[in-house]
Amino acid sequence: AAEPDAADPDARGAADPAADPDAGAAAPDRWGRVALVRRIGRSLLALLLATSAGGALLTFSAQLAPDTAVAVLMLVCLTSVAAACRWLFGGLADRWGSGRLQRPLLAAGVVGLALVGLAGGAGGSSTAALLVAGSLAVGVAYGGLQSATLVTAFAEGGEGDHAGVSVAWNVGFDLGTGLGSAVVGVLATQVSFRAA
Asked: pTM of this prediction?
Protein backbone atom coordinates (compact mmCIF):
# COMPACT_ATOMS: atom_id res chain seq x y z
CA ALA A 1 0.00 0.00 0.00
CA ALA A 2 1.23 3.48 -0.88
CA GLU A 3 2.33 5.69 1.98
CA PRO A 4 0.73 9.13 2.39
CA ASP A 5 2.52 11.82 0.41
CA ALA A 6 4.17 14.25 2.83
CA ALA A 7 3.45 17.07 0.40
CA ASP A 8 -0.28 16.36 0.42
CA PRO A 9 -1.95 18.18 3.38
CA ASP A 10 -5.04 16.00 3.17
CA ALA A 11 -2.95 12.85 3.37
CA ARG A 12 -0.95 14.23 6.31
CA GLY A 13 -4.17 15.07 8.15
CA ALA A 14 -5.51 11.56 7.63
CA ALA A 15 -2.31 9.97 8.83
CA ASP A 16 -1.63 12.30 11.78
CA PRO A 17 -4.23 12.15 14.62
CA ALA A 18 -2.82 15.39 16.01
CA ALA A 19 -4.04 17.20 12.91
CA ASP A 20 -7.63 16.30 13.77
CA PRO A 21 -8.72 17.52 17.23
CA ASP A 22 -11.58 15.03 17.30
CA ALA A 23 -9.46 12.05 16.37
CA GLY A 24 -7.79 11.90 19.75
CA ALA A 25 -10.83 12.77 21.80
CA ALA A 26 -11.05 10.80 24.99
CA ALA A 27 -14.03 8.70 25.95
CA PRO A 28 -16.66 10.53 28.04
CA ASP A 29 -15.48 11.11 31.57
CA ARG A 30 -18.01 9.07 33.51
CA TRP A 31 -16.40 9.90 36.83
CA GLY A 32 -16.62 13.57 35.97
CA ARG A 33 -20.35 13.21 35.41
CA VAL A 34 -20.75 11.43 38.73
CA ALA A 35 -18.86 14.23 40.44
CA LEU A 36 -21.08 16.81 38.76
CA VAL A 37 -24.26 15.07 39.89
CA ARG A 38 -22.88 14.92 43.43
CA ARG A 39 -22.16 18.66 43.37
CA ILE A 40 -25.64 19.59 42.21
CA GLY A 41 -27.42 16.66 43.90
CA ARG A 42 -29.40 18.71 46.42
CA SER A 43 -30.79 20.95 43.73
CA LEU A 44 -31.71 17.94 41.59
CA LEU A 45 -33.46 16.30 44.55
CA ALA A 46 -35.48 19.46 45.25
CA LEU A 47 -36.41 19.64 41.56
CA LEU A 48 -37.36 15.94 41.55
CA LEU A 49 -39.69 16.37 44.52
CA ALA A 50 -41.39 19.46 43.10
CA THR A 51 -41.88 18.04 39.62
CA SER A 52 -43.16 14.75 41.05
CA ALA A 53 -45.89 16.64 42.89
CA GLY A 54 -46.70 18.73 39.84
CA GLY A 55 -46.68 15.72 37.52
CA ALA A 56 -49.10 13.85 39.77
CA LEU A 57 -51.61 16.71 39.85
CA LEU A 58 -51.26 17.46 36.15
CA THR A 59 -51.94 13.81 35.30
CA PHE A 60 -54.69 12.94 37.77
CA SER A 61 -56.58 16.17 38.49
CA ALA A 62 -59.66 14.74 36.75
CA GLN A 63 -59.66 11.73 39.07
CA LEU A 64 -59.06 13.85 42.17
CA ALA A 65 -61.71 16.48 41.48
CA PRO A 66 -65.43 15.97 42.13
CA ASP A 67 -66.35 17.34 38.68
CA THR A 68 -64.85 18.62 35.44
CA ALA A 69 -65.07 22.30 36.38
CA VAL A 70 -62.97 21.80 39.51
CA ALA A 71 -60.44 19.70 37.60
CA VAL A 72 -60.03 22.44 34.98
CA LEU A 73 -59.71 25.08 37.70
CA MET A 74 -57.02 23.00 39.41
CA LEU A 75 -55.02 22.79 36.20
CA VAL A 76 -55.41 26.49 35.42
CA CYS A 77 -54.33 27.46 38.93
CA LEU A 78 -51.34 25.13 38.99
CA THR A 79 -49.98 26.02 35.56
CA SER A 80 -50.60 29.78 35.69
CA VAL A 81 -49.11 30.14 39.18
CA ALA A 82 -46.18 27.92 38.18
CA ALA A 83 -45.40 30.12 35.17
CA ALA A 84 -45.66 33.31 37.22
CA CYS A 85 -43.50 31.89 40.02
CA ARG A 86 -40.90 30.64 37.61
CA TRP A 87 -40.48 34.22 36.41
CA LEU A 88 -40.76 35.76 39.89
CA PHE A 89 -38.35 33.43 41.66
CA GLY A 90 -35.84 33.71 38.84
CA GLY A 91 -35.50 37.38 39.74
CA LEU A 92 -35.49 36.68 43.47
CA ALA A 93 -32.77 34.07 43.01
CA ASP A 94 -30.57 36.68 41.32
CA ARG A 95 -31.23 39.17 44.10
CA TRP A 96 -31.17 37.03 47.26
CA GLY A 97 -29.44 33.85 46.18
CA SER A 98 -31.24 30.76 45.00
CA GLY A 99 -30.16 28.37 47.74
CA ARG A 100 -32.17 30.07 50.48
CA LEU A 101 -35.36 29.90 48.39
CA GLN A 102 -35.48 26.13 48.07
CA ARG A 103 -36.66 25.19 51.57
CA PRO A 104 -39.61 27.64 51.66
CA LEU A 105 -40.65 26.48 48.20
CA LEU A 106 -40.44 22.82 49.22
CA ALA A 107 -42.56 23.68 52.26
CA ALA A 108 -45.15 25.26 49.96
CA GLY A 109 -45.26 22.02 47.98
CA VAL A 110 -45.75 19.94 51.13
CA VAL A 111 -48.58 22.23 52.26
CA GLY A 112 -50.18 21.95 48.83
CA LEU A 113 -50.09 18.18 48.82
CA ALA A 114 -51.47 18.10 52.36
CA LEU A 115 -54.41 20.26 51.28
CA VAL A 116 -55.10 17.97 48.34
CA GLY A 117 -54.97 15.01 50.70
CA LEU A 118 -57.37 16.66 53.14
CA ALA A 119 -59.83 17.22 50.32
CA GLY A 120 -60.54 13.50 50.30
CA GLY A 121 -62.16 13.70 53.72
CA ALA A 122 -64.02 16.94 53.13
CA GLY A 123 -67.39 17.31 51.54
CA GLY A 124 -69.24 19.68 49.24
CA SER A 125 -67.61 23.00 48.47
CA SER A 126 -64.81 22.31 50.97
CA THR A 127 -63.45 19.62 48.68
CA ALA A 128 -63.20 22.00 45.75
CA ALA A 129 -61.69 24.76 47.88
CA LEU A 130 -59.00 22.47 49.30
CA LEU A 131 -58.14 21.06 45.88
CA VAL A 132 -57.79 24.51 44.33
CA ALA A 133 -55.79 25.86 47.29
CA GLY A 134 -53.55 22.81 47.14
CA SER A 135 -53.01 23.24 43.41
CA LEU A 136 -52.04 26.88 43.96
CA ALA A 137 -49.48 25.96 46.61
CA VAL A 138 -48.03 23.13 44.51
CA GLY A 139 -47.88 25.54 41.57
CA VAL A 140 -45.75 27.93 43.64
CA ALA A 141 -43.31 25.12 44.43
CA TYR A 142 -43.43 23.64 40.93
CA GLY A 143 -42.61 26.90 39.18
CA GLY A 144 -40.40 28.54 41.79
CA LEU A 145 -38.16 25.53 42.25
CA GLN A 146 -37.58 25.22 38.53
CA SER A 147 -35.84 28.61 38.58
CA ALA A 148 -34.23 28.30 42.00
CA THR A 149 -32.74 24.86 41.35
CA LEU A 150 -31.48 25.77 37.89
CA VAL A 151 -29.67 28.88 39.13
CA THR A 152 -28.21 26.96 42.09
CA ALA A 153 -27.14 24.05 39.91
CA PHE A 154 -25.28 26.34 37.50
CA ALA A 155 -23.47 27.94 40.45
CA GLU A 156 -22.62 24.57 42.03
CA GLY A 157 -21.61 22.96 38.74
CA GLY A 158 -18.94 25.54 37.96
CA GLU A 159 -18.23 27.75 34.99
CA GLY A 160 -16.80 25.00 32.82
CA ASP A 161 -19.72 22.58 32.83
CA HIS A 162 -22.89 24.49 31.97
CA ALA A 163 -23.78 21.92 29.31
CA GLY A 164 -23.54 19.04 31.79
CA VAL A 165 -25.60 20.93 34.37
CA SER A 166 -28.26 21.69 31.78
CA VAL A 167 -28.52 18.05 30.75
CA ALA A 168 -28.68 16.82 34.36
CA TRP A 169 -31.32 19.42 35.27
CA ASN A 170 -33.53 18.50 32.30
CA VAL A 171 -33.23 14.80 33.11
CA GLY A 172 -34.26 15.60 36.69
CA PHE A 173 -37.26 17.58 35.49
CA ASP A 174 -38.49 14.85 33.14
CA LEU A 175 -37.77 12.09 35.65
CA GLY A 176 -39.67 13.87 38.42
CA THR A 177 -42.69 14.58 36.26
CA GLY A 178 -42.89 10.98 35.10
CA LEU A 179 -42.14 9.55 38.53
CA GLY A 180 -44.95 11.51 40.19
CA SER A 181 -47.46 10.25 37.66
CA ALA A 182 -46.23 6.67 37.84
CA VAL A 183 -46.09 6.43 41.64
CA VAL A 184 -49.55 7.96 42.14
CA GLY A 185 -50.96 5.75 39.41
CA VAL A 186 -49.58 2.59 41.01
CA LEU A 187 -50.74 3.59 44.49
CA ALA A 188 -54.18 4.53 43.21
CA THR A 189 -54.70 1.04 41.85
CA GLN A 190 -54.15 -0.28 45.39
CA VAL A 191 -56.10 2.34 47.37
CA SER A 192 -57.55 5.47 45.73
CA PHE A 193 -56.33 8.58 43.93
CA ARG A 194 -56.95 10.83 46.90
CA ALA A 195 -55.24 8.45 49.30
CA ALA A 196 -52.30 8.12 46.89
From this structure: 0.76
